[in-house]
Design brief:
Layout lengths: L18 H6 L1 E4 L6 H7 L4 H7 L13 E4 L16 H4 L2 E5 L6 H7 L4 H7 L13 E5 L31 E4 L6 H7 L4 H7 L13 E4 L38 E5 L6 H6 L4 E7 L9 H9 L3 E7 L2 H6 L1 H17 L4 E4 L16 H18 L4 E4 L11 E2 L2 E2 L1 H10 L9 E5 L24 H11 L5 E6 L22 H18 L2 E6 L25 H9 L3
Parallel strand pairs: 7-8, 7-16, 8-9, 9-10, 10-11, 14-15, 15-16
Antiparallel strand pairs: 1-2, 3-4, 5-6, 12-13
Helix pairs in contact: 5-6, 7-8, 12-13, 13-14, 16-17
């Protein structure tokens, strides 16, 4: 399969200072999974020198296919007295004090390293356990570039592209109700970690209405001709208006539900749902075998999202061939009128993807084939990436399974943003209100997956130009059904009233973000109750009532 790569937004240009300097430099093509920190270590130079040579500032976000200039031996070493080949000989370090709300993944992203590299650097046995005030060893950011020195050459050497210019902070933005740092950063086309750094924000999850942020703006216009001095203004200070948020491939916020049947269209319409999600599994049959699912959804007045999975064994036997066959099947569903297709489901765990082949890069190959097949068949079909299982179980990523944070980073590095319309995301471990970012009554309360705002910010940081599609969002309660099985005891305190209230609260948070395209409630009508208590998530309860439908209708505007 052809692997798509994400190219640099701005070209890196080599400035010729002298023949010997040019010969000493070389260009490295970034591979999937590499970080700037790892490239610096592998080439025996400091992270600061490598960042400086490429005009990069923290967080050092690089992607597969990027061209990175490797400086020659004259590049400054951070610790010249340290033994050659040791990490101390190649990279300088500083410290970071853990703040409330931070995770190892968010700190690692800030300093341009992976979750696992930072855990190794600090000898952390369990990367999910951090303490406020804990001091971590982290790579030191690159110093500001020195002022350019004149070059004594007869003629300047031509360059093929202009050097990238630093971001100019020429405006301000006042935080409004419903804003998040990720939402604001997306409006100004930067990563929310960079916006946090620009404003000295320690915890990106905490903003206050009325807070004034520095934001990047257009370079100031050239000075106008001299004119008489105007009278001093007594009005309020003028701020730079943010650019409009792109609405390409978004279409506005919509609500739907995952239904196992069409037994309750009245409840769904009452809740103001306009989408229904149905999951199907492909065993090699033609797409026409599922045409009745599409037609039934449309006949009941819903747009239909098909969440499609296949056979992990088929991937293991012949990955490239399977990806294309699967893509052809999805193209047939699009041709049959599917309004949206989610390409696979929770592909970061070995229940859904063959062990030994689990990686965001491998999945992106499948996604690329699927995207082109779907768009060729029906350009109007929304392509949603599969949503990984939100988890910290694996404590990193390996080919046998991975946590969703590093898995999404692998997808981003492999160029997944180029082959999807919307980022699939699941949230179904809610035990606190949808606006809470801390305080979950569990031992692992520091993990982001317990909190809706932190999940949103995390996924948005990997794909800041793409909307999010919540293809599963639900709250579990056993009220009116029975005791929850031991594996779901964390939700034993949830009530039916909280389920209704929190689902409605999620509408306000997701719609208010400005970057969530679709919210699919997990679920509408399951009656399955076992070690996987799906009916505990259902909004239509065993007695036929749907308390959440009324609260969702109110949240959607009546």
């Amino acid at each position: 399969m052809r692997r798509l790569i994400l190219l640099l937004g701005t070209m890196i240009v080599l400035t010729t200072v002298g023949t010997s300097a040019v010969l000493a430099q070389r260009v490295h093509i970034v591979q999937v999974g590499e970080t700037l920190f790892r490239i610096a270590l592998n080439n025996g130079i400091s992270l600061a020198a490598l960042a400086d040579a490429n005009g990069l500032s923290a967080p050092y976000l690089i992607h597969a296919g990027n061209q990175i200039v490797i400086p020659g031996p004259n590049a400054p070493a951070s610790n010249p007295a340290a033994p050659a080949g040791s990490p101390q000989a190649t990279t300088s370090y500083t410290t970071h004090t853990v703040q409330p709300g931070e995770s190892l993944a968010s700190i690692a992203a800030r300093y341009g390293v992976t979750y696992l590299e930072l855990a190794s650097l600090n000898s952390l046995a369990n990367p999910d356990v951090l303490f406020v005030g804990q001091v971590l060893r982290v790579p030191a950011p690159a110093p500001p570039p020195a002022s350019p020195q004149p070059v004594s050459q007869p003629e300047p050497q031509p360059v093929s592209q202009p050097q990238p210019q630093p971001v100019q902070t020429t405006g301000t933005y006042t935080v409004r109700g419903g804003d998040s740092l990720a939402k604001i950063a997306a409006q100004f086309n930067i990563n929310y970690f960079e916006l946090a750094r620009m404003n000295g924000i320690v915890n990106p999850d905490i903003l206050s209405v009325g807070m004034v942020l520095k934001v990047p703006g257009a370079p100031p216009p050239p000075p106008a001709p001299a004119a008489p001095a105007p009278q001093e203004s007594t009005g309020p200070p003028v701020t730079v208006a943010p650019p409009p948020v792109s609405t390409a491939n978004t279409g506005g916020f919509e609500l739907g539900g995952q239904a196992l049947s069409f037994a309750h269209p009245g409840h769904m319409h009452n809740a103001r749902m306009t989408w229904v999600k149905r999951q199907i599994k492909w065993h090699g049959e033609p797409a026409g075998n599922f045409q009745h699912v599409i037609d039934s959804a449309h006949a009941n007045g819903f747009k239909v999202l098909l969440s499609v999975i296949g056979e992990p064994g088929g991937i293991a036997a012949n990955p490239g061939g399977y990806y294309q066959s699967f893509a052809n099947f999805l193209g047939g569903l699009a041709r049959g009128g599917a309004d949206a297709i989610e390409v696979w489901n929770e592909m970061n765990i070995d229940r859904e993807w063959p062990s030994g082949l689990i990686s965001g890069a491998n999945y992106t190959q499948m996604l690329s084939a699927a995207y082109h097949a779907i768009k060729s068949a029906n350009p109007g079909t929304l392509v949603i990436s599969g949503a990984p299982a939100p988890t910290g179980f694996f404590q990193g990523c390996s080919t046998n399974g991975g946590d969703d944070d590093c898995y999404m980073r692998q997808m981003a590095a492999a160029g997944a943003a180029n082959v999807m319309d919307c980022v699939g995301i699941h949230y179904n471990a809610g035990i606190v209100p949808p606006d809470a970012s801390s305080g979950a009554p569990v031992g692992s309360s520091g993990h982001y997956s317990w909190y809706l705002p932190r999940m949103m910010n995390l996924y948005r940081s990997f794909f800041p130009t793409k909307p999010l599609c919540f293809t599963e969002l639900g709250y579990l309660t056993g009220e009116g059904i029975g005791a929850l099985p031991s594996g779901f005891a964390w939700a034993s305190g949830n009530t039916l009233g909280e389920q209704a209230s929190w689902l409605a609260g999620a509408v306000h948070r997701l719609r208010g973000s400005g970057y969530v395209r679709l919210y699919i409630v997990w679920n509408v009508d399951s009656t399955h109750w076992s070690s996987d208590p799906q009916s505990g998530y259902a909004i239509v309860r065993p007695d036929g009532r749907c308390p959440a439908c009324d609260s969702l209708r109110a949240a959607m505007g009546g």
